[in-house]
Structure formats: structure tokens, C-alpha cells
Write a structure and sequence with these properties.
Blueprint: E1 2-6, H1 11-22, E2 26-31, H2 37-41, E3 51-55, H3 61-68, E4 73-76, H4 88-108, E5 113-117, H5 143-160, E6 165-169, E7 172-174, H6 183-192, E8 198-200, E9 203-208, H7 209-221, E10 227-230, E11 234-237, H8 238-249, E12 256-258, H9 260-274, H10 285-293, H11 300-306, H12 313-326, H13 332-335
Parallel strand pairs: 1-2, 1-4, 2-3, 4-5, 5-6, 6-10, 7-9, 8-12
Antiparallel strand pairs: 9-11
Length: about 350
Amino acid sequence: MRVLVTGGTGFVGSHTVAALHRDGHRIRLLARDPARVRPVLAPLGVDPEQVEVTCGDVTDPDDVAAAVAGCDAVLHAAGVYSFDPRRHRRMRAVNVRGTELVLAAARAAAVDRVVHVSTFGALLPCGAGPVTPDTPVGAPRETYLASKAAADAVARRHQGEGAPVLISYPPAVLGPHDPHLGDQTTRIRNALRGLMPIWPRGGFPVGDVRDLARLHAALLASKPRSGRYLGPGAYVDTGALLDTLRAVTGRRLPAVRLPAAAMLPVGVLAGLAQHVVPVHIPAEYGAIYTCRVARPMDTHATDELLGRPARPLGETLADTVRWLHAAGHLSRRLAGRAAGPPP
């Protein structure tokens, strides 16, 4: 089938394009900068010449309508994922308005199905139990998560009206080939560079971007044309995350962990300072807030659909660090044993 992918030059979108390409789908990308397509997709084994590219923006209704025309399915992965307060305005426009336009255009064009890529954070905060596909949309007190919750409400409204919309809820994703060094990959890099000596207690769900891409491909091929699926992965305590990072790198990585509630004021001050400080400040309110309110995810339906569980965290972290070194983002010393034997 011909699948329109928005956000196809991002981390999740590019890996999803690779998975769809392997399954034999014809792919059309809606991209603001077509020049990004080749350097992003070629390392994933996708011949850019076999991908149709339409130049446009998900916040422009004419661009979206033209991109959807003639497609059998839409995978909407476009979004601004960041806890950086300097990006809030663009975040609201892309994450909410973009979702409204893409899903409305898909319905108008009567596509067979739409996969909307949400986030587990759209369901926060929730009760004491695990997050499930039936967990209501949350009301998170953080701009990025709130924008994704608003977009999720749009997708659920279309589902309630009978539209063929499937929703995925990715965990925090890691893995190789992150073209723009997103927040999660940058956090691992910063930890290895010694820029994160303090971590909040608590944790958050973590998964592998390649497993998430397999889920998206499976949703486009599955019989159900509507439903909600939590992305592959598992809840990881920040202490366990650090221990696993130490194990795959062989480095000590000294760090202390403080109660997330006590660190939230630091995150607020860092967010205010970020408006005037040109370099990125690793202490982010959104990351601390997420560690405080996140809960484990019930991924049984996802595991059943995929036929196997998610990759182990150690494998994902090792591949992430190995790629960071190979791409020149970390020295061999900082990557430790994950970099492999010296040449």
C-alpha cells in the first residue's frame, strides 16, 4: 500500500520508514526540508530514490491535503519532542494543530487507516496501577506532555466517531541512528560526559526505537482498523538505568539520586534560565516531572501483536552508545567498552 509518513526524517519516523520499506510498502514523506531525507534514511538501508517526497508542513492545510491525496494509509509521527521551553510555541503548533489537520485530511480522503503516534506521557498523571490502553487522556502539568495529551484527545475523538484510527503510545525511545539527537539520546550522552551527576528518583518507561518501528508496521498490516497500543518497552527506575549504563560502558559514572519532588523547583529555575542561556541546561522540569508521575505500562496486547517481547534495556543502551561513538558524538574513552575493541 502507499503510506504517507509525516515526521519521516525524525528518530521514530525514520526507523518506521525503514520498517515499512522492508515490508514492501510504497512510501511518501511530507517533509519540510527534502534535503534531510537522504542523510537520514540511507544509514537505515532505505534507498531515498525509492521514497516519494512532498515538500510541506503539517501545520499547512493545503500541504497536508496534497500529501494525503492518493495514499492508502497515513502514519502521523510528526511532532516536536523536547522539554526545552524555548520550543514551546512551535511545539503547540505542530503537536496539536498538525494532528488536527492530518487526521481531518485523512478522513476526508477516506484512507484505509491512520496510525497516530502519541506518547505514554499523554496518559499522565494516572492512578497507582499500570498504564493500559484504556487509561484516559491525562492532564500533565508540562508543556510538551500537555500538547501530546491534547493531540491524543483529537485522535480519540476521531476513533469515537468511527474513523479507522490506531494510536501508539511510545515509551521514551533509545537506539542507534538518532538524526537530531533527541532528548533521550542527548540525556545518555550527557550522562557519559559527566553533565548529569544528579538524577531524580522514580523512573519512566524505556523502549527501543526499532521495536517501536516494528509495532507501527504491524499496526498498518493488522486486521483491526482502530485501537490503542502501548509501545514496546518497560518501566525503568533511574537507578537501574544508570546501573545498566555502567554495565555496558564499564564506567563508574558517579551520581546521586534525589526525590523528584525536591528537584522540581530546580527544573523550574532551569527552565526560566534557559530563555537567556544559549547552551542547553540538562536539568529539565519535564524530565523531572515525568520521573515523578510515570507508571509501568501493560504491554501485553502489544507483545501479543508482535509475537515477542521488547529488546532488553542493556542491548538498547549498548547500541545507543556504540552509535554515539561511531557518529562522533562521544569519544572512545567516554563510550567505554560499548565502543568495542580499538582499531
